[in-house]
Amino acid sequence: MQFLCRALRTVGLVLFYYVFSIGITFYNKWLMKDFHFPLFMTLVHLAIIFCFSTLTRFAMQCWTGKPRIILPWKVYLSKVAPTALATALDIGLSNWSFLFITISLYTMTKSSAVLFILFFSLVFKLEEPNPFLILVVLLIASGLFMFTLKSTQFNLEGFLMVLLASFIGGIRWTLTQVLMQKAELGLQNPIDTMYHLQPLMFLSLFPLFLLNEVGLSVSTTEKLFRVSELSHLLYTLVTLSVGGMLAFGLGFSEFLLVSRTSSLTLSIAGIFKEVCTLLLAVEFMGDKMSTVNWLGFVVCLSGITLHISLKTFYNKGNGPMVRQLPVRDNPDLELPLLQTKDDYCEDTNDEEEHEILY
User: Fold this and answer.
1) What is the per-residue pLDDT across 153-191, written as a single tens digit (0 to 9) for each?
2) What is the rounded distance in angstroms from the CA atom of residue 94 to the CA atom of residue 205?
3) N or C: which end of the chain has fewer CB within 10 A?
4) What is each CA distance from 24 to 19, 59, 69, 109, 251, in whole angstroms?
5) CA dihedral 204, 176, 120, 323 (to 10 degrees)
């Protein structure tokens, strides 16, 4: 019964992530058709996420009567800054690429993040080397190549942006997993993690914004500072705010899924979300995909499916593949709405789990 409850909770967390992830992908692509300032949009999103995180922390503190964690400056800058920088660049470059490429090419290229997460998991010794991983890498890489081969809607600049974002995303989610599963930092709660990350993310992305969008481009746009009617300004602010709320929901669902499982789980679960995204993009956004492109996508899926099978095989005790890390030590850091009665009894009577769940 406990296994079934955990399985249902995991499926619920994955579906929760799907809603915000698919929603913000199509929303940002739609917004970029008329609003050509992706870095400014991202900065607005970060500010909104920080405000929502602050309000949520305050509400949780009032509800529990216990103060929320606030990291010392030394720990904050040394431990959180690398994750914040990687996260800001990943999100910024991803949003920027929507100016150049289709949703289908964006989605397929972002799936290569599994390769980079795999690589950095080995570098940070979160995962043990395995010879079958070479086959996984070859399948995913060849699938990505076939998907982009002779694509009629291919754009090199946008493709390189997303590929770089995927590479940085591998660093991002590996560091995020380490950050959230270090019990001594006290950032197992995704709201606390988001609260600490947003200011440094804003500062990390701001120089890139100054370099590319400040000046005549932003100051002369009729969408913001040179509006002819107040309604146009309000419309822009509302659309940016809606995107910020979707970004908050996405960030919360991502961090929640990573904290309860792992960064690799997030990417693997995201593949099935990407199937839905591709189908929706072809159906409603006019994206064009040839037979070779679809075959490349199937090959990529085969590589990720193989990796899932290997994970299942090794997690059943047939060999070491996942390195054990200490996770939640303090039940007070758990989200109250996710802390069930069975979880409470298990936390108080049983030993803490030390295996990264995949």
Assistant:
1) 678 888 899 889 988 888 887 787 778 777 778 887 878
2) 13
3) N
4) 9, 26, 29, 17, 11
5) 160
Q: Is 46 helix (H, G, I), strand (E, B) or coil?
A: helix
Are 71 and 11 in contact, with CB atoms under 8 Å apart? Answer: no
> Taking a C-beta distance cutoff of 8 angstroms, is the pair 25, 221 a contact?
no
**Strands, E assignment, the chain:** none
Over residues 191-226, the pLDDT tens digits come to 888 899 999 999 999 998 888 876 556 656 666 666
* Cβ-count burial 188-221 (b if 16+ within 10 Å, e if not): bbbbbbbbbbbebbbebbeebbeebbeeeebeeb
Residue type (1 letter), 24: I
Phi, psi of 251 (to 5 degrees): -60, -40
Alpha-carbon dihedral sign for residues 144, 145, 151, 157 = positive
The pairs formed by 334-343 with CB atoms below 8 angstroms and a separation of 24 or more are 334/188, 334/189, 335/189, 335/190, 335/191, 335/256, 336/60, 336/63, 336/64, 338/9, 340/5, 342/2, 342/5
- For residue 63, the surrounding DSSP H or E stretch is helix 38-64
Supply the Cα-derived Rg of the chain in whole angstroms: 21
Say what the pTM is: 0.73
Two tokens, residue 303: 């590589």
Q: How many residues does the chain have?
A: 358
DSSP per residue, 227-291: -SSHHHHHHHHHHHHHHHHHHHHHHHHHHHHHHHS-HHHHHHHHHHHHHHHHHHHHHHS-----H
What is the rounded end-to-end Cα distance, in angstroms, of the chain?
Answer: 19
Express each pLDDT in 244-284 by its tens digit: 999 899 878 877 776 676 656 666 677 678 778 888 888 88
